[in-house]
Amino acid sequence: MKNIAILGSSGGNLYNLGGKYPDKLIIDILKQCDTAGINVSAIQFVGAEVSMDAAKNTTKASLYTLEEGKPKIIYNGSLKDTNQEATKMDLEIARQIRNGGIDGLILMSIDSENANKHAINAAVEMKIPIVGTGGTAMANVSSKGANVISTSGTTGTTNRTRAISFVFSLSKHWGIKFRPTFGKSNENYNEQAGGNPLRRINIRGIMISSIPAFISMALILALSKIPILSGLGDVFDILIQALPVVLAAIAAKQVSDLDEVSIIAGIIAGVLSIDGGIIGGILGGIGAGLLVQFLFMKCVQWRFPMTTVNIVAGGFSGIISGLVVYYILGPLALAAGDYIKLLIELTIAFNPILAGAIAGLLIWPAILAGVYHAAILPIVLLEMEQAGVSFLGAVDMVALVMVAAGINLANILFPRNKSEAAIATPGLMINLGFGTFVESAYPFMFSSKVVFVGAILSGGIGGMIVGMFDIRGTAYLPSFVAPFASTNSFGLITAMSASLFCAFIITTFANKLLKTKKA
Fold it and tell me: Which of 74, 225, 279, 356 is 20 to 30 A from residue 129's alpha carbon, by CA?
């Protein structure tokens, strides 16, 4: 196994591109090194509170080292004093290099004339491979005759892209097989190293992550119905067009989590995918994410400077994927979305009361079985894409949120024991204040068959009234706002009140029945 040392500082330009947070910067490198089977045996990193371009001797700074496989601060003080402490560590690292304990260096905005002088001199003597960033710093290192195998500026780079570039160059130099870690960073990052990016595609995850965008649109719709705020109707139209961009950015980041590079590629693809609706946005984002990873690795293999790598990976992948959606997939995606919405509308038009009742009866079993987020939520978002409201969204608010509120209210006013009132109170507040957290009713539903059946029946009654008034609305809004974001305020208020009251009565009856049995 090869051993390396990480030397550097928070830098000038680097400070604005990850150097401000040394822990995160170093951890990204450690993860990629671990994936390649390269051991980091030493760290010497000086982190200042401001960019080194503006730092003074009195600027506060910290010295980081390696302890138990993680970066740790071992000294805090002025920049001048911190550099003096770093010099002591520099001497030790130089000794390790000369003794053969360190086989390579990763450098970031180092000070080759002072804080890192001895280590660099030792590296020059031993001809060990060096990779790094920082234009001026790396130029100074090269001028000393060091074996620099890869160098780059910091502009346009991120912690992760730099880390992958560093480790890839060292791995190639030593003939080590390296498959970078992409996807979300966590403690089990080894399991995500390389792999098929197609496995990271999760349509449900993309949809769920995009909910705030849809809800902001619904809020604007509700506010636009206030006469003095009617001008917000134009804002609502803009937000509808922005939805594919949001979905594309999330999809690209999910498939290839290269920080800002993935997001930029997704946004570019999303802008070109607007005419394809939210399905087009998802396709554009997925395509951009796949291309980002592919182009990034190709450019690294071709030894492009990291700034160029990010420009090519982020810009070209977004353009290519977006153009494919714009000219080919977009019309097909839009047609598919329209057919799905047409099928929903035809089903509702056949018998809206029956459709609402069935939806209301089945929505609790659906959410408990995990079907809600996989099937119902995507349909709700497809419905909301054009008008900002949805039939199933109204059923969600009535049959889930208000039923949960009714169950919680009953357990506050007529609990089986005093402790349950304390549990139900925050649940009710969130139900009414945010239009979500239906899980708060689970403890009471699972502990009583009467309450469980009552929740399903109450949902069916509320759904039936939604169908009776042919309402379109949404959940995830405050209960007092939801009616104004619907197509029929009076009808939704009626349905919400009915389901809440029904769940309240049944739960109260169940609680009193249980207390009577105990007595």
Answer: 74
Q: Which of 242, 466, 230 is nearest to 359 (CA)?
A: 466
The whole-angstrom separation of Cα 423 and Cα 428 is: 9
User: Which H or E run contains 117?
Assistant: helix 117-126
Q: Please tell me the predicted confidence (pLDDT) of residue 195.
A: 53
Per DSSP bridges, beta strands 147-152 and 129-133 are parallel
Rounded to two decimals, the pTM is: 0.73
Q: Report pLDDT for 308.
A: 82
Q: Quick one: pLDDT at residue 193?
A: 38
Q: How far apart are CA 97 and CA 36, in angstroms?
A: 21
Laid out side by side, the sheet with 104-108 consists of 70-78, 60-67, 39-48, 3-9, 104-108, 129-133, 147-152
Distance (Å) of CA 91 to CA 87, 119, 484 = 6, 7, 70
> Cα 460 to chain center, whole Å?
35
Cα-Cα-Cα-Cα torsion 285, 287, 293, 298, nearest 10 degrees, comes to -140
Please state, rounded to an integer, the average pLDDT across all residues of the chain.
Answer: 88
The distance from CA 32 to its chain's CA centroid, rounded to whole angstroms, is 20
Query: What pLDDT digit, counting tens, does each position of 151-185 carry?
Result: 877 776 788 888 988 999 999 999 998 888 765 54
Min mean pLDDT across 103-107, 162-166, 334-338, 352-356 is at 334-338
Rg of the chain over all Cα atoms, to the nearest angstrom: 29
Neighbours of 167 (CB within 10 A): 27
Decide if 384 contacts 416 (C-beta within 8 A): no
Element (H, E) at 168: helix 159-174
Q: What distance, in Å, lies between the first and last C-alpha atoms of the chain?
A: 72
- 342-395 pLDDT, tens digit per residue, is 887 888 888 999 999 999 999 999 888 877 877 788 888 888 877 788 999 999
At 266, list the tokens: 């997704």
Q: What pLDDT score was predicted for residue 196?
A: 67
The CA dihedral of 83, 87, 93, 99, to the nearest 10 degrees, is: 170
What is the per-residue pLDDT for 192? 41
> What are residue 72's DSSP bridge partners?
65
Six token digits for residue 494: 């009626």
Task: Kindly write down the DSSP assignment for every residue of 198-267, as one continuous string.
Answer: GGG--HHHHHHHTHHHHHHHHHHHHHHTSGGGTTHHHHHHHHHHHHHHHHHHHHHHHHS--THHHHHHHH
Residue 512: closest CA among 441, 443, 432, 451: 451
CB-based contact 347:299 (threshold 8 Å): no
- CA-based nearest residue to 137, from 128, 129, 148, 126: 148
Using CA atoms, how far apart are residues 374 and 151, in angstroms rounded to an integer?
A: 46
384's CB contacts (< 8 A; 6+ apart) are 214, 217, 218, 390, 393, 474
